[in-house]
Design a protein that fits this description.
Strand order of the largest sheet of chain B: 3-2-1-4-5
Distance between the termini of chain A: 32 Å
Oligomer: heterodimer
Order of helices and strands of chain B: EEEEE
Number of strands of chain B: 5
Number of helices of chain A: 14
Radius of gyration of chain B: 11 Å
Helix content of chain A: 25-40%
Mean pLDDT of chain A: 91
Structural class of chain A: alpha/beta
Strand content of chain A: 15-25%
Mean pLDDT of chain B: 83
Amino acid sequence: MRFVDEFRDAQLGRALAGEILAAVDPGRHYKLMEVCGGHTHAIYKYGLDDVLPANVELVHGPGCPVCVIPMGRVDDGIAVAEQPGVIFTCFGDMLRVPGSDRTLLDAKAAGADVRMVYSPLDALRIAKANPEREVVFFAIGFETTAPSTALTLKRARAEGVRNFSCVCNHVTIIPPLRALLESPDLRLDGFIGPGHVATVVGARPFEFIPADYGRPLVVAGFEPLDILQAVQMILRQIGEGRCEVENQYTRVVPYDGNQRALEAMAEVFALRPHFEWRGLGFISQSALRLSDDYAEFDAEGRFDTPGVRIADPKACQCGEVLKGVIKPWECKVFGTACTPEHAIGTCMVSPEGACAAYYSYGRLTRQREAV
Amino acid sequence: MSCSEGHCITCSDAGEPMRVLAIDGERGLALCIDGHGAHHTVEIALVNADVGDELLVHAAVALTRLEAAA
């Protein structure tokens, strides 16, 4: 397919790897964070870290929407799903995220009507087909996904669908990045920016990273050549003493984003004063709720939820993985008690989670060999 | 929007390129085909789309037209 196949060319990949090797200072260690879980998945799927020099380390960021959902919010979703007459809908990976004592899949097995959808628009169709039932959509995701929820709610209102509501867990990418940059745990040399979040918000909102923190960021696509080129562009900036936001993914990302999407989000959502992120704790103004104008579609207003904060299991080190402080295989339960089939932590649930990516592509215990 | 290769594209916050086959302007929808040959109904309220365009689609919503930003 156009825009895909040409970005998987092995010969061009080898050429880029050579340019990266030429750009690095052998006496220096480079720590680059790929913010997005989609990048993490692609890096291990295509073995990209194996073609990078040993002194270029990729650190995995918090941009996996499933991974950052705290257990208390999962419990809230299960409580809604178990209400009589409710059809509860959510994306696929969300079904397997552990709450305090079970998953949505467990609730489904016990009789709750939980259904997987590919889009909130599918959930709205279910609501229209079942007017006697309450249909709830468990909304997760960054700014990539929030527009689809916003458009769905606008359609629900326009079509007068009253039996549809959302548990809104949408989060925004800038506040956790700022929190990570403020963290004393981590020193990073640059960022591979999230290409599809930037499709909506643009590259401009990331300008604070070079301006305030002196780190380059390159917005990147998700094919192997996209990621290698982004690494090369970051290293070139460092080598030339530059520090700015660059857009590698120009075939998709307009520098100022998608204004229609931003307007739809501004109409339907409002910022929450604070929101809990798994492993990162509470971060101010980092998540979205439904705006007052759309409060009638807020499932948290229609149904009682426990609303209790649940601490992560002691053995789980997802927080340190999400902050890039440890590698997945350094976690005490990685690949033993915690596997994709029986996940303890969220990073093992979604394949975009760093732990699942390491596990699925065989990075079980070892350090990377030097190139 | 389908899940492929064992992972949930929607959960990964990743978009998928699709080509527009037909447009229903009245309902703001397009019939699209993805790289695996599967057909999808896609909401096109956020983009200006024509038949033959390549769109980046996430959760059944087109987020951008690929040529537009190139």
